[in-house]
């Protein structure tokens, strides 16, 4: 479908060109047909996630190449059985590590699919939200504030529409839009009847017909097939990467020192010493640390998604467990946001009227009609805002006059009211509805703002939402030039009273968060009494309250004393929400911010964890946030914090065990080498030990169920390092105890049974390690609770790993073919008592030694 200049054509001509009915939109079948022709509305090529692609990358990793060098060395030395065994183990390790990485990347890819943006379009006469990639030429877009434009489109209706085009043109101010045709030679920045992919609706509403998608859009031509940029590493991922580099140098130093000592002091043949060094380097270099973080964060984020918390950035998943303060809105989080128009209040009446009486009561009818006539054509087509929906339902029985819309004044940051200027026989009528105090300030005549203050406070104290409605008549010669000129000398018509029930689970969720030692602030643009009422119902301290007007008198640097005593802030602006988050962060708090609107985006982006509403949130809010609450519910935040704490705990358990066994292996090999004794493990044994060490850290610990009660503990102290002193103490204590246990079995066999062949002593050391590192894993699977309280069968993967380790140990001791490969032998029956006793040592001691708890 060749594209003429859509900006030079009238809306009707564009609709004819795209063969679409503006009142019906495309049919589902036609949309599918066009999707096959034009392809997905995508400007970035998705990376292909393939198991074999990861396998090809893994086989080229330095550690795997190191193992291949060991296999080659065995082959050159003529030890074909050992070479074959190393090759088999290499394949096993590669498949395990590829499986781990594939699982982590698949989890992250699944999160991206769950977070796929949607777009409201008109299909078959109804507005429906579809995947943005499914938008096709001819679709009728429904444009609303905060939404990102999904494709290039020609405007059909513009109701006060202004668009932020800075992502495309660099223009810093929102561009006002209209529907008039333009000259074909008009440059892109001046095409004010077009909206372009990637730009954002700043204010107003509109309808537009899509004329280009994907790579055919202006943005697509710029981007081309640019590869998708990787998400930057989280602080913990970066820390682990740097830590692994430092520890790799330490491990390499020992991997050189130990073979050197074996050759010089223990008189080991140099080929075997070199093989030991290569195997030791492979087993002790902590190359798994960065992937462990990705694994835990990726799988944890997928689990959070099942709990209705969609993680958009891994950084947010990492921080959830650290949150110390939550800043939440009222509507839609603590309340259900299912508004109903409960009553009408007329000046002078002193009583409430049902909306159903609007047909019988002239004043009530005028009030409700005026409110309905403030709606833009887009809202009239499909009311998406809960308040507009409630108004449409409450006034659905009235017949609206067909009055031409001359101008529309949308809600924005500067004005908390919406107005529509409509043509009338005498000229025009301006209809206005909005925040009661602001609309009353624009009115002349009774009642005054002061006279209605008590009435407003009464409704707000009951948790009601109140809108004021007003109007003004203009002659055809005296039409207002803009919102500032229109918004004065209005006639007050009355109040609309909306009811919004508290979410049934809100109070319990707030209590759960507060029990976890987290402070909760309620920050809303609503009336102070409404905020106080809701705060009291959910258990947020509301004795003291700060209003936005009071905050304006203070510098944000001076907020601290007030924030110590106050948890409820009302009638605050989006800028004040941002300043609130920054003020709390300046105190050292880890702040979670919940928001839904375009003006919440700065605070969401600045907060340590920004949480946006999934149902009623704008595209801009969702893009600024790290987590999207798909059910718009505060209780989901409580669940997410609990999961985040469990995720952090599992990562700590995984890392401390992983590093503890690395310490144990180095100590086990270093001491005999320094004493001039043969190595406790052969090179093949070392490689096999590494296989089981990685399996435990990468698969068993990451799915450990959380230790209860997670939400009864205070949050982790801000600034506390991941590798804190108690964790380092556990790593070295557990590692040295395991090394001591292996040393006892290795040396004790000769002490108690007399001179024993080296293979038998190595077998005792190998069996002690295999059993001891299993028992150490069970001891370290909990941080504060004893393992029996956690339940021995609550982690099936850990149990399977333990059974596998025990089975391999028995086979290595008693199966002749495996003995020949590993260099093991059959242990004397009595030696098993020594092995079992030594293996119990690290697990039992670490059950009793719990630093930091």
From TrEMBL:
Originating organism: Moorella mulderi DSM 14980
According to the UniProt record, where is the region Disordered?
A: 170-189
How is this protein situated with respect to the membrane? Answer: Multi-pass membrane protein
Q: Tell me which UniProt keywords the record has, alphabetically.
A: ATP-binding, Hydrolase, Magnesium, Membrane, Nucleotide-binding, Phosphoprotein, Translocase, Transmembrane, Transmembrane helix
Which positions fall inside the Cation-transporting P-type ATPase N-terminal domain?
5-79
Cell location: Endomembrane system
| InterPro entries on file | ATPase_P-typ_cation-transptr_C, ATPase_P-typ_cation-transptr_N, ATPase_P-typ_cyto_dom_N, ATPase_P-typ_P_site, ATPase_P-typ_TM_dom_sf, ATPase_P-typ_transduc_dom_A_sf, ATPase_P-type_domA, Cation_transp_ATPase_P-type
Q: Which SUPFAM superfamilies match?
A: Calcium ATPase, transduction domain A (SSF81653), Calcium ATPase, transmembrane domain M (SSF81665), HAD-like (SSF56784), Metal cation-transporting ATPase, ATP-binding domain N (SSF81660)
Protein name (Swiss-Prot/TrEMBL)? Calcium-transporting ATPase 1
Coiled-coil features, chain-numbered ranges: none
Question: Per the similarity annotation, which family is this?
Answer: Belongs to the cation transport ATPase (P-type) (TC 3.A.3) family. Type IIA subfamily.
């Amino acid at each position: 479908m060749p594209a003429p200049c859509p900006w030079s054509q009238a809306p009707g001509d564009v609709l004819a060109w795209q063969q679409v009915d503006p009142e019906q939109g495309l049919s589902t079948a036609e949309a599918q047909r066009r999707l096959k022709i034009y392809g997905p509305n995508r400007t970035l090529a998705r990376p292909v996630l393939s198991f074999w692609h990861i396998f090809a990358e893994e086989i080229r990793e330095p550690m795997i190449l190191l193992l291949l060098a060991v296999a080659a060395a065995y082959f050159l030395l003529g030890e074909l059985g050992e070479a074959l065994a190393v090759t088999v183990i290499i394949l096993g390790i590669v498949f395990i590590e590829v499986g781990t990485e594939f699982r982590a990347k698949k989890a992250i890819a699944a999160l991206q699919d769950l977070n796929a943006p949607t777009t409201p379009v008109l299909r078959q006469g109804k507005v429906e939200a579809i995947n943005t990639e499914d938008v096709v030429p001819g679709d009728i877009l429904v444009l609303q504030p905060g939404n990102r434009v999904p494709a290039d489109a020609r405007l059909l209706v513009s109701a006060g529409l202004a668009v932020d085009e800075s992502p495309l043109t660099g223009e810093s101010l929102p561009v006002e839009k209209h529907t008039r045709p333009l000259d074909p030679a008009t440059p892109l920045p001046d095409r004010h009847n077009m909206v372009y992919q990637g730009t954002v609706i700043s204010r107003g509403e509109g309808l537009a017909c899509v004329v280009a998608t994907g790579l055919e859009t202006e943005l697509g031509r710029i981007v081309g097939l640019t590869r998708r940029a990787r998400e930057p590493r989280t602080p913990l991922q970066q820390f682990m990467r740097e830590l692994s580099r430092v520890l790799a140098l330490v491990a390499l130093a020992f991997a050189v020192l130990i073979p050197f000592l074996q050759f010089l002091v223990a008189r080991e043949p140099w080929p075997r010493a070199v093989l030991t060094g290569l195997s030791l380097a492979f087993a002790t270099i902590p190359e798994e640390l960065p992937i462990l973080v990705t694994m835990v964060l990726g799988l944890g984020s997928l689990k959070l998604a099942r709990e209705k918390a969609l993680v958009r950035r891994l950084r947010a998943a990492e921080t959830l467990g650290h949150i110390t303060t939550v800043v939440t809105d009222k509507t839609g989080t603590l309340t259900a946001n299912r508004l109903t128009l409960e009553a009408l209040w007329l000046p002078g009446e002193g009583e409430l009227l049902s909306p159903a009486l609007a047909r019988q009561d002239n004043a009530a009818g005028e009030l409700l009609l005026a409110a309905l006539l403030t709606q833009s054509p887009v809202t009239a087509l499909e009311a998406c805002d809960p308040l507009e929906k409630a108004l449409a339902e409450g006034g659905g029985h009235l017949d609206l006059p067909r009055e031409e819309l001359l101008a529309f004044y949308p809600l924005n940051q500067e004005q908390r009211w919406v107005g529509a200027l409509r043509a009338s026989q005498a000229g025009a009528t301006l209809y206005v509805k909005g925040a009661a105090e602001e609309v009353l300030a624009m009115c002349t005549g009774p009642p005054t703002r002061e006279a209605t203050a008590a009435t407003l406070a009464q409704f707000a104290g009951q948790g009601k939402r109140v809108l004021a409605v007003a109007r003004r008549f203009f002659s055809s010669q005296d039409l207002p030039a803009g919102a500032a000129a229109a918004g004065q000398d209005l006639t007050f018509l009355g109040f609309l009273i909306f009811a919004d029930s508290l979410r049934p689970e809100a109070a319990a969720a707030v209590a759960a968060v507060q029990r976890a030692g987290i402070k909760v602030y309620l920050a809303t643009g609503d009336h102070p009494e409404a905020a106080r009422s809701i705060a009291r119902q959910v258990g947020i301290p509301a004795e003291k309250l700060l209003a936005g007007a009071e905050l304006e008198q203070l510098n944000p640097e001076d907020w601290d004393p007030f924030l110590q005593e106050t948890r409820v802030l009302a009638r605050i602006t989006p800028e004040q929400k941002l300043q609130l988050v920054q003020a709390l962060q300046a105190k050292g708090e880890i702040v979670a911010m919940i928001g839904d609107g375009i003006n919440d985006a700065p605070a969401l982006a600045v907060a340590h964890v920004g949480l946006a509403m999934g149902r009623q949130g704008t595209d801009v809010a969702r893009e600024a946030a790290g987590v999207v609450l798909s059910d718009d519910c505060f209780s989901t935040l409580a669940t997410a914090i609990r999961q985040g704490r469990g995720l952090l705990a599992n990562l700590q358990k995984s890392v401390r065990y992983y590093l503890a066994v690395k310490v144990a292996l180095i100590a086990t090999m270093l001491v005999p080498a320094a004493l001039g004794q043969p190595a406790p493990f052969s090179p093949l044994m070392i490689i096999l030990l590494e296989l089981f060490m990685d399996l435990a850290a990468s698969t068993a610990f990451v799915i450990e169920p959380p230790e209860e009660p997670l939400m009864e503990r205070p949050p982790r102290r801000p600034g506390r390092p991941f590798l804190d002193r108690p964790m380092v103490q556990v790593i070295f204590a557990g590692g040295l105890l395991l090394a001591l246990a292996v040393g006892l079995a290795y040396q004790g066999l000769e002490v108690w049974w007399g001179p024993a062949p080296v293979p038998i002593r190595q077998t005792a050391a190998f069996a002690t390690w295999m059993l001891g590192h299993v028992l150490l894993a069970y001891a370290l699977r909990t941080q504060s609770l004893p393992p029996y309280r956690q339940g021995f069968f609550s982690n099936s993967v850990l149990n399977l790993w333990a059974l596998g380790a025990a089975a391999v140990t028995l086979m290595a001791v008693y199966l002749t073919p495996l003995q020949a490969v590993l260099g093991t032998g059959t242990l004397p029956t009595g030696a098993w008592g020594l092995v079992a006793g030594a293996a119990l040592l690290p697990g039992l001691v670490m059950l009793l030694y719990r630093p930091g708890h």
